[in-house]
Each structure stands twice: as structure tokens, then as C-alpha cells.
Automatic annotation (TrEMBL), chain A:
It holds the Pfam family DUF711. Homodimer. It comes from the Bacteria. This is UPF0210 protein MUDAN_MDHGFNIF_01407. Signal peptide: none annotated. InterPro entries: UPF0210 (IPR007841). It comes from Lactiplantibacillus mudanjiangensis.
TrEMBL record, chain B:
PANTHER family: UPF0237 PROTEIN MJ1558 (PTHR34875:SF6). Gene3D superfamilies: 3.30.70.260. The lineage of its organism: Bacteria, Bacillati, Bacillota, Bacilli, Lactobacillales. It holds the Pfam family ACT_6. Coiled coil: none annotated. This is UPF0237 protein MUDAN_MDHGFNIF_01406. Residues 4-78 form the ACT domain. Belongs to the UPF0237 family. InterPro entries: ACT-like_dom_sf, ACT_dom, UPF0237/GcvR_regulator, UPF0237_ACT.
Length: 447, 89
């Protein structure tokens, strides 16, 4: 092996923050359904803790042997609204507590799947689960929740959109920080390893290992070498870099799957930033040639980045899945925060950006006085972008109770700090209150 | 087991000997080796092979970490499969 290749690999890890963002084990809970809630929860606890018994140990072993940091070890389970529905329980907070206990026992960072899929309508379990979300998130620290309110095939459940606006406001009155554990999706995917939106889809195998990679720093550094050259060269450079980064994900995932004796599912090709310096998606866009992210041209640069990452990554691994695109969570990206604070990036531009990348209005703090209807309006807009464009979109907003534009909310660690962003004060109240269902779009006459 | 060992540190007399001596004691066979000076930093890359039934990866890593600390060098050891995966088609 050439010395140059060895040094390059080491530099990617040591200086450019290349890491495996998460190894997520998906676990089906269908065999835990019971008409007695207590029994069901015991089965859930037992299944999770036996299935993922060695997850953290194996991840640590791989980290030691390959010298690749594995930041998070996570679990995703079947949406609890489906599992708990048979129990007749009137409140699912106890299920969240069971998930939390299992996560603590295993030493995993987060556990996702306190979820409901209501894009076409509610079953009883969905209603109970959604009503339990505020208390469930207040009483746990590792449980993540998601609700899918729309899809390209089913349209958008406007009743659910309205309800989720109220739920998010209610969570924020307890503690705005809890809002970061809830994602409202359109076209949610079954094999997403990233939180807070991970759940184990109904069509998945009993257990599966999915891997999420990171590496914005590596792409940024690679682009520094082609400054001033044509955009074709930029695209090629991103593809080559994404290929290398993804190969690492494929290697780590396949080793983890083999050692855990669980089938290997997918590599999620997303570029996931962290608040650490040099680990920013916004800086890649600026390296492409924007003075600061948010400038006219941002959407085009992001579209190119997102597509080139996929093209490079697809060939590097056996199966691609999850969200697979560039993430633009404001609080988790130091340069995004600076752009917002400089007045160069607003909610409307971010919304436009979500039309060309994964995943949506993510980790955005809005003023505490933002109405539930306004939040529902933001959810409806994102869901519409997802529904029409055949892509996953999501909303993870944080109404910063008692704060206004210019203040910020601290989340700590990988989740960073979110500056409070202005929301258009004009109200969509009457639209949201109509309720009902936005029909699925026509799949012809694309324009 | 095959692993790549990289050593980086301020250039000084006896770096190669120190590292090679430790590897010999651990019964690690050096299969390939190269070194260079980059901005007064000594950089050495070794490809080593040993029987991991006799000595675990973790034990080798611990020994090299200790050596690195004692001699002011950054010593990394990583299984070769990582480099093959990232750099080879």
C-alpha cells in the first residue's frame, strides 16, 4: 500500500473529523404485542436488551481495531403506536419509559421508535401515542419520537398536521430542549439510522444493522484542492470523496453485522455536520463559492452537493438507504449558526434548500410566541415539498419559550446551539383548522 | 492479523530502533516499512503481522500507546482492512 494513501486515510480521520456517526440496530417488536400492556412492555424490554446485548461492546471493539471513531450506538424499534394498540392502554408513557430503561441498560445513546404513521389516517394506537408524546419526552432523555403525517402516495393528513403543531407547543412549555427529540415527517423511511427520526419499518427484517456516516470536513478539504476550477471538477471531487467515506461505512457496518450476527441493512450516505469547527455542510457550500450560506445560489450549490454525494456513495456500498443526503440542521452546524446570526439565512431560504436535500427544517428555534397554527403551517409546507417531490421531508422546530429573535437555545454536545429565527407573523389559522386530508398528488404532468 | 502502524513525532535519534525493538518483543513481524521527514516531523509507516490467537489486538495497541507516551511519539495501529476498503476498488 502506498504511503500517500495511508497518510490520507489517517488525515481524514484525525484532522477532518471523519467518523461513523451512528451504528443503529433496528429491532422488530411485532412479536411483543400483547393485550396486556404490562406483559407487552416486559417482552419489549427483553427483546431489545437481548437483541442488542453486544452492540456497544462490538462498536467499541471496531473503534479500537480500525481507529475509526464510532460516535453513537443507537436502537430503532417498530413504531410503538402499532405495538401498543392491542393493549387498550389509554396512555403510552410507560412504553417510552420501558424504551428508556432498555437504552440505559445497554448503554446506547438514543432509542427511536416512539412513533406513529398517520399519513392516511389514525388508528386508535396513533391517537394515544401522539397524546402521550409531551409527557413521554419530558420523562425520558434517550427516547426519540417521530410522526409521519404525509406521503407521496397518501397525501397529507391535515388533522395530524394541526395536532402536531399543538403537541410541539405543549412540549416547549415544559422544556424547549425536549422538542429536539421529535420529528414530524412526510415520506418517512423505514431504515433511517439517524435520530430523532429513526424507527424500524414494518417491512424490515426481525433485526438489522444500519450505519450512518459523517464527513463534511473531508469533503470541504477535498474541495480546497480544486479552487477556481469548473463546477464539473467540483462534482467529480465530491463523488470521489463520498466514495471513500462511504467505503468506510460499508466496512464498519459489515464487520458490526457479522460480529453481532445480525443482517447488514444499509449505509445512509448523509453528510451529517456537528457543531465542531471544520465539520460543517455550510462550509462546503461556501467552499463551492458562496460568500456565506443563504446567498442567492445556495439552493443550486446544495443540489449539486447532495446529488454528487449520492453518486459517489452508491457505488461504494452494497445497499444504500435511510435519508441519504446532506443534512442542514441549523444548531448542529457552526457556520449555519453564523449565517443566521449575520442575517444571511432565514427560514424561507432553508425551506427552499429542503426541496433539494435531506431532510427538512431541522433543529430550528423559533420565537416562543410562535402560534401552534404557524408551526402546523411550517409542517404543512414541508410535507407538501416532500409529497410533490417524492422525497423525505421533516420538521424539527423548537419554540423557544420566553425567547425572541436574537436569543438562542442551548442543547449541548452534538446538538449545539440554535439561534431563534424569525417566522412570518401572518397566520394560517383558518387553513389548519379546516382539518381533513390533502389528496395525494397526480403522478403525471410533472412541472 | 495484519495492521498498519504509523509513527509521527519530532525527529530524534533512535525512533526506528525504539519502535522496531518493541515490535520484536511483541513478536510482530514487520512486512513492509517506509519513513520520511515532513516539516521536521518524522513519519514512519509499518505493515505488521502477528498471530492474534497469541496476542490480542487490544494488548498490542496498549503496548504501543504506552511506548508512544514514553517516547513522545504518536503511534497509531489500525487493521489493514480499513485502508484497503477506503483506498482500493
Amino acid at each position: 500500500m502506498e504511503s500517500r494513501s495511508i497518510l490520507e486515510t489517517i488525515q481524514m480521520i484525525a484532522e477532518e473529523n471523519l467518523d461513523i456517526r451512528t451504528i443503529t440496530m433496528g429491532i422488530s417488536l411485532f412479536d411483543c404485542i400483547d393485550s396486556d400492556g404490562v406483559k407487552a412492555r416486559q417482552k419489549i424490554y427483553d427483546k431489545i436488551t437481548t437483541s442488542a446485548r453486544d452492540l456497544v461492546t462490538v462498536a467499541d471493539q471496531i473503534q479500537t481495531e480500525y481507529g475509526v471513531p464510532i460516535i453513537n450506538k443507537r436502537i430503532a424499534v417498530t413504531p410503538i403506536a402499532l405495538i401498543a394498540a392491542a393493549s387498550g392502554d389509554h396512555d403510552y408513557v410507560a412504553y417510552a419509559q420501558t424504551m428508556e430503561r432498555a437504552a440505559v441498560a445497554l448503554g446506547v445513546d438514543l432509542i427511536g421508535g416512539f412513533s406513529a404513521l398517520v399519513q392516511k389516517g389514525y388508528q386508535n394506537g396513533d391517537r394515544t401515542l401522539i397524546a402521550s408524546i409531551p409527557q413521554a419526552l419530558a420523562e425520558t432523555t434517550r427516547v426519540c419520537s417521530s410522526v409521519n403525517v404525509g406521503s407521496t402516495r397518501a397525501g397529507i393528513n391535515l388533522d395530524a398536521v394541526g395536532e402536531m403543531g399543538r403537541v410541539i407547543k405543549q412540549i416547549a412549555t415544559d422544556d424547549p430542549v425536549n422538542c429536539m427529540s421529535l420529528v414530524v415527517f412526510a415520506n418517512a423511511v423505514d431504515d433511517n439510522p439517524f435520530m430523532a427520526g429513526a424507527f424500524h419499518g414494518v417491512g424490515e427484517a426481525d433485526r438489522v444493522i444500519n450505519v450512518g456516516i459523517s464527513g463534511p470536513g473531508v469533503v470541504k478539504r477535498a474541495l480546497e484542492q480544486v479552487r477556481g476550477q469548473s463546477i464539473d471538477v467540483v462534482s467529480e471531487q465530491i463523488k470521489k470523496t463520498a466514495f471513500k467515506v462511504t467505503r468506510m461505512g460499508q466496512l464498519v457496518g459489515s464487520i458490526a453485522a457479522e460480529r453481532l450476527n445480525v443482517p447488514f441493512g444499509i449505509v445512509d450516505l448523509s453528510l451529517a455536520p456537528t457543531p465542531n469547527e471544520g465539520d460543517s455542510v455550510a462550509e462546503i457550500l461556501e467552499e463551492i463559492g458562496l460568500e456565506q450560506v443563504g446567498a442567492p445560489g445556495t439552493t443550486a450549490a446544495l443540489a449539486l452537493l447532495n446529488d454528487a454525494v449520492k453518486k459517489g456513495g452508491v457505488m461504494a456500498c452494497e445497499h444504500v438507504g435511510g435519508l441519504s443526503g446532506a443534512f442542514i440542521p441549523v444548531s448542529e452546524d457552526a457556520e449555519m449558526i453564523r449565517a443566521v446570526e449575520a442575517g444571511h439565512l432565514g427560514v424561507e431560504k432553508l425551506e427552499a434548500m429542503t426541496a433539494v436535500c435531506s431532510v427538512g427544517l431541522d433543529m430550528i428555534a423559533v420565537p416562543g410566541e410562535t402560534s401552534a397554527a404557524s408551526i402546523s403551517g411550517m409542517i404543512a409546507d414541508e410535507a407538501a415539498i416532500g409529497m410533490i417531490n417524492n422525497k423525505t421531508t421533516a420538521v424539527r422546530v423548537i419554540p423557544a419559550t420566553g425567547k425572541k429573535v436574537g436569543d438562542s437555545v442551548e442543547f449541548g454536545g452534538l446538538f449545539g446551539r440554535a439561534p431563534v429565527m424569525a417566522v412570518n407573523p401572518s397566520q394560517p389559522q383558518a387553513f389548519i383548522q379546516r382539518g381533513g386530508h390533502i389528496p395525494a398528488p397526480i403522478h403525471s404532468f410533472k412541472n | 492479523m495484519k495492521a498498519i502502524i504509523t509513527v509521527v513525532g519530532q525527529d530524534q535519534v533512535g525512533i526506528v530502533a525504539t519502535v522496531a525493538n518493541e515490535l520484536a518483543q511483541l513478536k510482530i513481524n514487520i512486512v513492509d516499512m517506509s519513513q520520511t521527514l515532513m516539516d521536521h516531523n518524522f513519519t514512519m509507516m509499518l505493515s505488521g503481522e502477528w498471530d492474534d490467537q497469541v496476542l490480542s489486538f487490544a494488548a498490542v495497541k496498549a503496548a504501543l500507546d504506552k511506548l508512544g507516551e514514553q517516547s513522545g511519539l504518536t503511534i497509531r495501529i489500525q487493521r489493514q482492512a480499513l485502508f484497503d476498503a477506503i483506498q482500493k476498488l
